[in-house]
Recover the amino acids of this structure.
């Protein structure tokens, strides 16, 4: 069981490092009008977390 937990933890940490590397090399900028442009802006999965009422 301990070996399985260590394997799962190692895979999760590797996935986290990969996400950080992708984030570091992705291009994000603010244009002249103040709009933020980022590669993953089409993913609106986290927008409901910051709205009142969860909608």
């Amino acid at each position: 069981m301990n070996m399985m937990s260590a394997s799962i933890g190692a895979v999760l940490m590797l996935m986290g490092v990969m996400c950080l590397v992708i984030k570091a090399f992705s291009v994000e900028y603010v244009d002249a009008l103040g709009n933020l442009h980022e590669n993953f802006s089409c993913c609106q999965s986290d927008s409901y977390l910051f709205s009142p009422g969860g909608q």
